[in-house]
Each structure stands twice: as C-alpha cells, then as structure tokens.
Amino acid sequence: MKPPESLSGIVRGLHHVAIAVRSIDEARAFWECTLGMRAGEPEVIPDQGVRVLLLFAGEQRIELVEPAGENSPVTRFLERGGGVHHLAWSVDDVADAIRRLVACDVRMIDREPRPGAHGTTIAFLHPKATGGVLMELVEDQAGA
Fold first, then answer.
1. Helix or strand or coil: residue 32?
2. CB of 71 within 8 A of CB of 58?
3. 80: CATH
4. What DSSP letter does each residue of 68-108 carry, written as one string?
5. Cα 89 to Cα 11: distance, rounded to the nearest angstrom
6. In this predicted model, what pLDDT tens digit does every residue of 52-71 receive, in sequence order?
7. What's the total number of domains in the chain?
8. Which of its termini does the chain have fewer beta carbons within 10 Å around, N or C?
9. Which is nearest to 23 in space by CA: 62, 65, 82?
C-alpha cells in the first residue's frame, strides 16, 4: 500500500529500537560483552524521566532506557512486563513531520519538537495511532 502523498518522504529509516531495562548498569554487560556492541555514554533526559544508553552494531542502534525515578513512564512500562519500548524513525525535520502527520489526523503525544538524547530533536506518536506501538521521530543534529 502506498502512503498518501502528504506523508511521502517523512521517514528516512530506522533510527533505533528502544528497550526498557530496570538498570542500564546491569544490562550493559550483556549488550557489550556478550553481543560485542559498542556503547556510548549514558545520558539523563530529565523532561522524559529516563536515563539512556546507545549501543551500536555497525550502523544499527539499540537504546537502553532506564527509569530515572518512580514517576517515569518507563517505570510503569516495566511494571507491565517491559521489553521493546518504542521504535524510533529518522526524519529530516521533526517539526515538518509533526505538521504533516497532524494534517492527516494522526494522534501525537508531542505536537511540538522537544530535545532528545545526544543533541537530537524528537517527537512521539501516540500508540493508539500506530496499532499499539509507541513511535518516536528523531532528527539528528547537523553533521551527526
């Protein structure tokens, strides 16, 4: 099925798959030592209530997401079983992607871009608009 022209070209590819974990420090050994993935440095994203760690296997990225407090949405997600938290899609311009999706009546969590990890700009689509999958739009910083 071909997407409507209004949505053509929004997504460039998969940016990362985010996996909710109770502790990045505990989970990290499996991803680095067992699987041989290369890790960046953990980063706290206060407005999202999370601590994240990007891991790389070639150009592919996995993001471990740990709750930064009991009020984090990830805490509630882990209480329901955890696992894959969201899919993140690379886009050229998050603000434009939001505008185009809203024009097509796609339900958004974020109607304005916000700062993400590692200098990115992000926005989330509501899972009720995507068949139950939380999705993130990610615009990398220039040159990243």
1. helix
2. no
3. 3.10.180.10
4. SSTTSHHHHHHHTT-EEEEEEEEES-HHHHHHHHHHTT--B
5. 6
6. 999 999 999 999 999 998 89
7. 1
8. N
9. 65
